[in-house]
Amino acid sequence: MNPPLLQVDNLYAGYNGVSVVRGLTLTVSAGELVALLGPNGAGKTTTLRAVSGLVERHGGSVTVLGGPVPKLRRAHKVARRGLAHVPEGRGILGQLTVRENLLLATRRGKVDFHRALDYFPALEPLMDRKGALLSGGEQQMVVLSRAILARPRLMLIDELSLGLAPILFSQLLPVVRRFVDEMGAGMLLVEQYAEMSLAYSDRAYVLNHGDLVLSGPADDLLADRGRLDAAYLGGNDRTCPEFLPAESQT
Amino acid sequence: MSIYIQFLLIGIGTGVIIGALAVGLTLSFRASGVINFGHGAIATYVTYVFVEMHQNGEYPIPPLPNPLAMGAGIANWFGANLDAPDIPTVIHIGDGTSVGMAAAIAIATSVLLGFAAHFLVFRPLRYAPATAKVVASIGILLTLQAIVVLRFGSRPKQAEPLLPDEPVTVLGADIPRDRFLLLALLLIVTFVLWAAFRFTRFGIATRAAAENEETATLLGYSADFQAAVSWITASMIAGGVGILVAPITGVTPARMTLLIVPAVAAAMVGAFSSFWASALVGVAIGMVQSLIFILEQRQSWVPDLDLSEILPLVLIAAVMVVRGDVIPGRGAIRAERLPLAYADRIRPLAVILFLIAMLAAVVWLPFEYRNGLNNSMIGVMLALSLVVATGFVGQISLAQVALAGIAAFGLGSYVAEGGIPFLLGYPLAVITAAGFGFLVGLLALRSRGPSLAIVTLGAGIAIEAVLFRRDGWFGTSGIATADAPEIFGIEFGFASAFPLGDDKWPSPAVGVFILAVTAAACLFVARLRRSPTGEHMLAVRANERAAAAAGVNVARIKLAAFTLSAAIAGAAGALKAGQLGSFRPDTFGFVASLVLVAYAYLGGISTVSGALWTGTLVGAGIGTVVGEEFIILGRYETYIAGTFLIAELALDADGIAGSTRRFNRFMAARLRRMLGQARPPIARTEMVS
Fold it and tell me: Is residue B63 part of a domain?
């Protein structure tokens, strides 16, 4: 079996010397959609930012696409390896047109705008509009297509649902799933909405207060709502035999 | 009529270099979010390299500390007679190189300068507050300016014209051809930059990084690389156009360096985003300045007010009023840390002992040390004025010495000319300065960070040009005089009689008086930091919106800070006037304001102890006097201020005061551990606001 695209091992990461994520271990392999769930302040965003090299790491190791994570100053190098990170709050470039936003997906060569329109036909009439003038859902589509056009081998998406109506969110999830299946890429999807995300995921990890409290196949987690709720509400249910140790699940 | 057209079109020459500088400012701002006040100095430096290479074959080497000289000095102290080899000041390449060779070397130098500005200064400061970046760029200005003066002297040089300058007749006026060639060149450069930012992926990615550096990084673009490319390009434009324009503007250390002011005004009209606006407004400024020059000569209805000096300020103020703060912010990856503004502890016993020691020092020390102390104490006051405005409220001011000058000239007018008693005239002078500070503060209400630096710089220059250099209440074309301070018949002047100490000048009397005022100012500012107003000031510094939301009247705090700051600066200026007896407009020139900001950051911008350090460092202060015992610093003062300022900002924004405090705490903790009195570690409760 190929080595996983993302291997996080006993990661400690945070801000100003304080670890927000403590001892996290997770993997994402090719063709896999993995959900990273948890309530506010659980450390989900910090985990993604540690993978992209945007926050300080205090311990453990992260291997992304076969290499270590560089320092903040060289953070752009991870993207060049084939990682696409859709940050929280979307990361639309408001002063740039949709076309210019998409153009930045790759650093050289032509950009295949049709592929983006294939995933999101609604963008067609908006190509020459400035990003800031789009609605929240349209912005999310632009950012997702930008990530897709980069042809990444691994994609991280932070809070796809942020600021979106639930119905829009539920329409974006199948597109994300389609991308994983068609491209055989790996995806780590950070979400607060557990149930909707789990329906499209292969596996999931649940964080709370920086600790991994639950992990396993998405179907198992969906089946046992009680345990999931307990994990969200801070229930310390780590000894549960079906779900731990996390490593043995993969 | 044709003479006016002639002057208008001749002004294109200066206009092109202003426009080129403005385009470069816009370019480096768009790629790094920094406004480089040293950009004009880069043009000056490169032009000098070109002229010197071409005419004498000399390439300057920046002054470096010579460790051998120190060894020789110590050896000589013990009676040896060593002469350490000097580090050469220039590299000689024949008696002068060809134009092409000289130009190539000069352009290579501009590339180097651009790269150094990025790599040594602004890249280490990427996450520093905007104000610190502005101050660092002032460090670049001071350093380059100092090298030029040290290596080539301050006398003007003549540059050989590179472009054909035979006249062509336009609308009945004879205009040298080079003006039009220069204009064409500038327009081509502007077009290329505009197109690059509009259509190339590098340009689009640079715009992306300016809006949100994190997103650009996540897409695989290096903002660092973009910045480096832009700094080098901007530097090359400045140097290249500088060489071509040099025959028109003349080559002096100050000429192009100071064109940064109109250049900033031009870039401001284009909101630091539009290359076209920067270039065209820059050219227009040069043309209008030239026209004003001839109008002032020929037309009686035009007031002889040095209007061309005020033109940039008027332009900047107009942009501010019409559009507010137009300089777009930059979406940086990391939050900025502001200098630590800890409250200085006032221990009564320590203060009293220190005052007694100072009193003894200003009375009994040898006269040159007394003089140094007096200068230092005035320096402390000037630094305090910056501590209030910049340290506490985060509002940079590049007009402090001009405000001090208002009080100095005011004191001269009120007391020496107006016959008002000193006890009344001194506060009146201070109030006058405070009033001007209030006006500067009004401008500051609509601007912050870089644009505030621009406004205050413009205001300082306008005050100097319009008030100090003209005959009237606040100025003179020659030498102004101020009487010695006199309170209840006792004189505290430079030559006043004093019962104690030697009878040499400066009289201890002047020192005693300065000490009293400075001590009062220090205690006042230390108290202010602890007062509710002080807390409000820090809140405004940390986050204006959050402060406003918490019920702090931001506008009032800013106005109060500027008024108070100007009052303290004025008190210092009037002391200076009383100490000197006679002074010239240059004494309060705007370069002094820039040097002051440099020293204030070096000492520690946000605390009273920092101000004390600043006072120790300032030119002709006690630090210099002591230093001269070992090495001659005088000529290198500006150079040292500039380089040390950059180093200080890049390494640690808290100044010497902050470093000393950290060191003391570290040693105290070590000592306690050694003595076995380990205490539980105390959580850091300082506000890192």
Answer: no
Residue B195 vs residue B498, higher pLDDT: B195
User: Cβ contacts (< 8 Å) between B208 and chain A: which residues?
Assistant: 93, 96, 100, 104
Q: How many domains does chain B have?
A: 2
Q: Is the backbone peptide bond immediately before B506 cis, with ω within 30 degrees of 0?
A: yes
Q: What is the mean pLDDT of chain B?
A: 85
Would you say residue A86 lies in a domain?
Answer: yes
How many domains would you assign to chain A? Answer: 1
Tens digits of residue pLDDT in B345-362: 888 898 999 999 998 888
Strands (E), B371-512: 480-481, 486-487, 490-491
Whether B496 is covered by a domain: the verdict is yes
Between B93 and B680, residue with greater pLDDT:
B93
Q: What is the pLDDT of residues A3-28, one digit of tens each?
A: 889 999 999 998 888 889 999 999 99
The beta-carbon neighbor of B212 closest among A73, A91, A107 is: A91
Say if CB A195 and CB A222 are below 8 A apart.
yes
CA-nearest of A9, A42, A61, A66 to A250 is: A9
The letter for the amino acid at B511 is G
Q: Do A93 and B212 touch (CB under 8 A)?
A: yes
Instruction: Tell me the two tokens of residue B578.
Output: 């009383």
In angstroms, the separation between the Cα of residue A76 and the nearest Cα of chain B is 4
* CATH (domain of B192): 1.10.3470
Name the residue facing B204 among A52, A79, A96 (closest C-beta): A96
**Which residues, numbered 313 to 372 in chain B, qualify as contacts with chain A under a Cβ-Cβ cut-off of 8 Å?**
333-334
Q: Is A244 on the interface with B (CB under 8 A)?
A: no
DSSP state of B90: E
* Domain end marker among B548, B569, B595: B595
Domain boundary among B574, B595, B616: B595
**Which residue from A93, A103, A107 is facing B215, i.e. has the nearest CB?**
A93
- On whether residue B111 sits in a domain, the answer given is yes
- Is A221 inside any structural domain? yes
Question: Quick check: is B601 in a domain?
Answer: no
Structure confidence at residue B404 (pLDDT): 95
Cβ-Cβ contacts under 8 Å for B681 (sequence gap 6 or more): none
What share of chain A in percent tops pLDDT 70? 92
Q: B624 — phi, psi (to 5°)?
A: -65, -45
A177 in any annotated domain: yes
Chain B residues closer than 8 Å to A158 by CB = none
Taking an 8 Å cut-off on Cβ atoms, the answer to whether A80 and B211 are in contact is no
Of A243 and B175, the one with more pLDDT: B175
Q: Is residue A126 part of a domain?
A: no
d(CA B142, CA B635): 13
- Min Cα–Cα distance to chain B from A81, Å: 9
Q: Which of A168-172, A237-241, B60-64 has the lowest mean pLDDT?
A: A237-241
Q: Considering just the CA atoms, what is the radius of gyration of chain B in Å?
A: 26
**Domain residue limits at A33:** 6-90+153-249
Residue A59's domain is classified under what CATH number? 3.40.50.300
In terms of domains, do B291 and B384 share one?
A: no
pTM summary value:
0.85
Closest chain A residue to B211 measured between Cα atoms?
A93
Q: For residue B118, list chain A residues with Cβ-Cβ distance below 8 A.
A: none
Percent of chain B at pLDDT above 70? 91
Beta partners for residue B174, in sequence order: B169
Q: Which domain holds residue B194?
A: 2-57+93-322
User: Does residue B358 sit in the same domain as residue B498?
Assistant: yes
The helix (run of H) or strand (run of E) holding residue B428 is helix B422-444
**Does B402 share its domain with B458?**
yes
Tell me which of A18, A100, A144, A145 to substitute to probe the interface with B (most B C-beta atoms closer than 10 Å): A100
Instruction: In whole angstroms, give the CA distance from residue B601 to residue B80.
Output: 40
Closest by CA position to B246, among listed B183, B160, B182: B160
**pLDDT band at A246, cuts 50/70/90?**
very low
